[in-house]
Amino acid sequence: MTPEDRALLLDLLTRQRVLALAVLVDGAPSSGLLPFAVLPDFSAALVHASRLARHTAGLIGGAPFSLLIHQPDDGQADPLQLARVTLEGAVEPLERQTAAYEAARHIYLAKFPAAAQTFTLGDFNLYRLPFMRGRFVAGFGRIYNLISDTFKSLAHS
Amino acid sequence: MTPEDRALLLDLLTRQRVLALAVLVDGAPSSGLLPFAVLPDFSAALVHASRLARHTAGLIGGAPFSLLIHQPDDGQADPLQLARVTLEGAVEPLERQTAAYEAARHIYLAKFPAAAQTFTLGDFNLYRLPFMRGRFVAGFGRIYNLISDTFKSLAHS
Predict the structure, then answer these.
(1) Taking each helix axis from N to C terminus, what angle separates A148-155 and A3-15, rounded to the nearest 10 degrees?
(2) Which residue of B18, B66, B80 is in closest CB contact with A31?
(3) Mean pLDDT calculated for residue range A51-73
C-alpha cells in the first residue's frame, strides 16, 4: 500500500463518524447507519446500538457482519472513485460491568462525548466488530485486500 | 408523514448519489458502495455493478437486498440524527437488449452521464432493486415505516 493510500485508510477509520452496518435478520441482509469508533490497535470497530433498532436483532455473538465506511460524497467527484472500505467479521456483544465493556465505553465516549446520555439507557448495548478481512478501494485501480496483519501494521504506522 | 419529512425523503432518493448495498454472499452479509438512480415512480433503485465486485455475487434474481441512503455527515450535527432510509426487497437483474433494460439505462445515464463508458464494458450489468418495505429516520422521534403505497404517493407529491 502506498503511504498516501495508507493515510487515506487511517483517515476513513479514525475521522469518519458513521458506518453502514449489514447483518443477518431472519436470513436476509439488514442494514443500518451507526456512529462508530475504532480501537487504538485497529483490530475492531465499536458501535453502540439500541435493541429497538431492527438491525440490532442481527448483533448476536458470532453472527457475521459486513460494514462499510466511505468518504462523504461532495457531489463533485466521480462517485465510483469515493474512497471506501468494507470490513467483515463476527459480532462480539460486550457484557456490561466487565473490563472490556468499560474500556470500550471509554474509547467510544472519547469520540462521542454527547453519547454519555445513551449509556444510561437500558436498551443500548456496546458491540465489538472485529476486522477479520476487508477490501479497501482508495480510488481508480487502487484496490487492496485487507487481512488481520494489515490492521496490526496500521497501529504501528 | 409531515410535508418537511416527505421533502427530506424525496431529497434522499433523488439528490443523493451513492447507497450502501447489503446482499448475501455465501450466507453472510456483504456490503458495497454503489451509485444509484431511482425510477420516476419511486418503485425501485437502479444500480450498475461490475461482476468483478464481491457484492455482485449476491445480485441474483429474487435474492434479498437491504440498501441504505443517508445524508452525508458534515461532522457537525449529532450523527444519530442524520436523515437516513433503509429499503428492502428482492433483486431483479435486467437483461440486456430488452425494453426494461433500455429504459433503465436511460434513467441511469440521465443522472450519471459519465457512466456511458461503463455501459460499453462486458462485466457491468444493471440491476433493479424494487422497494418492498423500508424505514425512514428523518431525525429524533421522526421515524416512519414505509410500505409500497408510500412510494406510490411520493410519485404524486
Answers:
(1) 90
(2) B66
(3) 92
B28: nearest CB among A33, A64, A112: A64
Instruction: Give the residues of chain B that fall short of pLDDT 50.
Output: none
What phi and psi, each to the nearest 5 degrees, are found at residue A68?
Answer: -130, 130
The one-letter amino acid code at B99 reads A
Instruction: Say yes or no to pLDDT of A155 above 90.
Output: no
Question: Which of B24, B32, B35 is nearest residue A79 as measured by Cβ atoms?
Answer: B35
The pLDDT, as a whole number, for residue A122 is: 83
- Asked if A33 and B70 come within 8 Å (Cβ–Cβ), the reply is yes
DSSP A73: P
| Record: fold of B3-72+79-155 | Pnp Oxidase; Chain A (2.30.110)
Interface predicted TM-score (ipTM) of this complex, two decimals: 0.94
Q: Distance between CA atoms of A112 and A115, rounded to whole angstroms?
A: 6
Domain ranges of chain A: 3-155
Collect all residues of chain A within an 8 Å Cβ-Cβ radius of residue B22.
Answer: 20, 22, 29-31, 66
Q: Looking at the predicted structure, is the pLDDT value of residue A157 above 90?
A: no
Question: What residue type is B16 in one-letter code?
Answer: Q
Put simply, the answer to whether A17 touches B84 (Cβ < 8 Å) is: no
**Architecture of the domain delimited by A3-155:** Roll (2.30)
Mean pLDDT for all residues in chain A: 94
Full DSSP string of chain A: --HHHHHHHHHHHHH--EEEEEEEETTEEEEEEEEEEE-TTSSEEEEEEETTSGGGGG--TT-EEEEEEEPPP-SSS-GGG--EEEEEEE-EEPPTTSHHHHHHHHHHHHH-GGGGGGGGSTTEEEEEEE--EEEEEEETTEEEEEEHHHHHHHHT-
